[in-house]
Amino acid sequence: MGFNSSKGPSFFDLLTSQADQLVIGVDLLRTLFSAPEDERKALRKRLHEIENTGDELNHQLINKLNQSFITPFDREDLSDLASALDDCMDLFDEAGDLLVLYQVDNIPEPVDGLLSRQIDVLTKCAKLTAENMPKLKRPQDLRDYWVEINRLENDGDKAYRKTLKHLFDTGLDPVTIIKLKDIVEVLEKCTDAFEDLANTVESIAVKES
Amino acid sequence: MGFNSSKGPSFFDLLTSQADQLVIGVDLLRTLFSAPEDERKALRKRLHEIENTGDELNHQLINKLNQSFITPFDREDLSDLASALDDCMDLFDEAGDLLVLYQVDNIPEPVDGLLSRQIDVLTKCAKLTAENMPKLKRPQDLRDYWVEINRLENDGDKAYRKTLKHLFDTGLDPVTIIKLKDIVEVLEKCTDAFEDLANTVESIAVKES
Amino acid sequence: MGFNSSKGPSFFDLLTSQADQLVIGVDLLRTLFSAPEDERKALRKRLHEIENTGDELNHQLINKLNQSFITPFDREDLSDLASALDDCMDLFDEAGDLLVLYQVDNIPEPVDGLLSRQIDVLTKCAKLTAENMPKLKRPQDLRDYWVEINRLENDGDKAYRKTLKHLFDTGLDPVTIIKLKDIVEVLEKCTDAFEDLANTVESIAVKES
């Protein structure tokens, strides 16, 4: 046993697969965002399926932890990474749910454009994460990854605040503003979740160094 | 000294007592939810008292940690469990405060029924937690507990989103919608707190396995 | 090397400097809160600068961790402290941004007075934190600090709920209520962040005891 076990995927394989699901997830989220209303439920269903796949990978990792005598990092660190990846996916899923639930259409500019800028940031975060998870074996080498994610989170933050400001200036009815504000905020939480993941990687690097 | 110490309650006794307070707390929350306005302040006062009892148990556990040479789990894990239990109670208390503070009455259906469905989920979470804390000695055996709490959290999530959707369809004035949305959201946070607690137990099981 | 290293500030020096920035930050926040609109952007710029200084101190500490063979506490604990201090500053910064972004003026009493009471609590939290960080070498001696921060957080909580209640009674338009509610809530999150920091100190004391 242990992490060299030939049986099944390694811890790094499982974390990488979770990250790959995030790339698929954010792509579905973007499609959902601009999809006509009658297609949204089907897209949300697919997003739920991706989220379930992520959950299963998370639990596979926990089970592997239970069966392994030797682990590449501390057990808690591996489960922290898996649950940080899971948090990102849960928030994509929540964003997708709100888009279907609130049925907000013809979002006026610049709000619509700013929302998709938030999704752009999330797409970059997901891709960067998927590129770097396979290199986790040497967390100290991932410095560029966590620095870039922190930079992206700052961009996301700016987009978020700009969106809020313009949202209040739209003169839309208060209830629509409340709904759009929820969507803006869940997208912001997604970026924060990617930052939390990057910070987890950074703190593992600190420990392992 | 150590966890076999005959002086006073064991760590498991203290965590179990905290969980028992949660069962009393959620019960008060339900009563408060459906109580006539003139009875609410008295009920909130009792909820505050329960919350204080929970705090005291939390601090007793921390003090016991300070006095114990041997602990059944890592010190941090025991304090994490105590504060996770405390978080659940703080959110019950917050929910109770909002119910009194916002004085929202005659909540229209289906919102009223959906809110009490959220409280049903919380009641199940609290009872399940209280049943399982005494078995903490062997966290690996609590798999059914954390799986069920995660399932309940998903139910709570569905109830939460359904409530939001219907809330926006009520045609209530925006300010009432904002208030009710706060209440729906704090109840959702309570379910999340029970999930966090269950995840803490799961990660201890992983470590101890 | 190690924490007796004569090269550069010690871990405790760095954490203390981060705390000192919080005192400057909360002071700017108060000035910003009562400043005429045309001065706010300049004040926010200064608040951003303070936030950047905090970030740099945070990263200095992480780098020092990477270079130190011996650390006064576990590596994770030191990085947890640094990031808890950073969270407080990020929330000050966010509060400042909202004050500029939302351009809410002539806030009616008692809301205006209650908002500055929330800032009073934050000022006390920041000062108390800055006074106590230099004593971190013996975390067990900081009991009064974390007890007092928890007490202040309870005061903040009361102020927060009272503010919400009165906010809804102002009869302001819903959009202004949403904006002010955001500001009230970010100030409440700041107090929570100071409590999280104090709890981190407490849990280190528990471990080190």
From TrEMBL, chains A, B, C:
Superkingdom assignment: Bacteria
Signal peptide: none
Similarity comment text for this entry: Belongs to the UPF0111 family.
Protein name in the entry: DUF47 domain-containing protein
Top-level taxonomy: Bacteria, Bacillati, Actinomycetota, Actinomycetes, Actinomycetales
